[in-house]
Design a protein that fits this description.
- This protein is mostly helical.
- It folds into two domains: 369 residues, no CATH class; 131 residues.
- It is built from 19 helices and four strands.
- The strands form two sheets. It has a two-stranded antiparallel sheet. The protein has a two-stranded antiparallel sheet with strand order 3-4.
- Strand 3 and strand 4 form a beta hairpin.
- It is globular.
Length: 516
Amino acid sequence: MTISDRALYARHRAERDTGPWGARAVCELWLPMLLFGSIGAITWAIRGTDGWGGIDGTIVPGLTWGILWYYLCSRKGIDARGVALWLGMGIALGGELGYGQYVSWIRGQFHVRDEVVPVLPALGYAWFMICGVGWGAPGGIVLGWVLDGSRSYARWIVRSILLGLLLVLLFNLGAPLFGAGVIDWLGQRLVELCPGLLFPNADFGIYAGELDKHLARTVYTNTQNFAVLIWWAVAMLVAALQRDRSTLVAGAVIGGGFGIGFVLSALWCLGYVYAPGYIDWWKVWELNAGFNLGVLYVIVLYWATRRVDEAHDPDGEPRSALKPEPVPLAFGAWTTSGFMALGGFAVLFAAGLEFTFWYYFWRALLLGLFFATVMFLATLRPARHVNDLRKDLSLAFSVFLLLFIMIQGATSRTGVVLELYRPEDVDQYAWPWQRIALLVPAVALLFGVTLLRVRRILQGPADMHSLQAEHMIDLFAFIGVVGAVTIWPSEIGVLYAVFLAFTLYAFTRLSHHLCL
């Protein structure tokens, strides 16, 4: 992150440095935490509704936080345009991990061959923590890489290998080498050699022979969650060896912190024991999980902003001359754009492969190609503008992707509300023609508006501050509408309204007090 507007940054520093600590804490921490947490609660709960899968659903809270991160920084005169997309896609990758069976474990219930046997609740809490680390780890590590800002080819080669390994673990790739996906292969080896290491009740001998659906799910889920935990530890070790403070801090706070936050959120599921018919406790859990993770992102945002302050005088002047970035190849702009395009394409394409329906394959392919094309468009302008253009185009694509994913998922329930089809006829996997009819015109309009925005960016410098507050409120309103439609007619919608009110309260107070 760098300074984009020295006058605005100087005003931010003056307001922050001269005011009382209590007022500064409200503006710098507590209100942003309420803002990120409240909108995170709604979007995380939207993620868990029919219409979205694990990864594409988690794009919704991830990109919302990414755009908010950019907005709060821009109001301080700090440029964070390049953060939004990678923050959103990083946390989205964790959405591939499963955890559903842990809900019964914390209640002491373990399902095997249509029976229920006892299990230590502590094991359920432990696996919730491991899974929480796995959900947060990709988001924290990728965010740390972006905040580090390094253009060292050696660093990015190692990071690319780590990212590729993560995709192998998340999507169970590796059949050409192992004859099965790497998670399937690892699970089989663990069952054969030491089932008691990761799988509960192994002393009963229940993992011998052919596994039923509950045991097979336990083997796969625990193996994958533990493998991603190890990946996080390796990524943190690599960051330590590279002296990469950004990745260490973001990885520890987002990854490690969400391990704790995931467990605390899961406690709501005990409501199924003590008040089973009172409310949808699973949805309350999701609201709490989104709030917790939003707070963790604000902690990293606060730290990252302080790093910008340490590197600049109060007037925005860098405290030391910035070393020129080495560009060893003659076509540096094309090389960097190609690297970003390839990385973005890989992540976007992978995010669509969790379903077998043809729509998701082509959606993933076209979204990846759209992003790659947008990145290369920046190279058509003078070299001195390429970096800024890439950031502007990346931000525009982030907004497009967020709205696209929300519209796509919302069509599932919207058709039910409009009585176009029955609830049992549609979910994230099913696409009756009525749902397609809802999706196509909305996406066509969104795509057209995005192309006009891309054209405007390429024609001249974008105005980073015009109408931003109005646009953010429009986004909150749209999220509220999507949330209301997808939860209708459940009484849990009251909590959506409460969190939306908290979101608007925090946002308007931040703007009113000119803390930014």
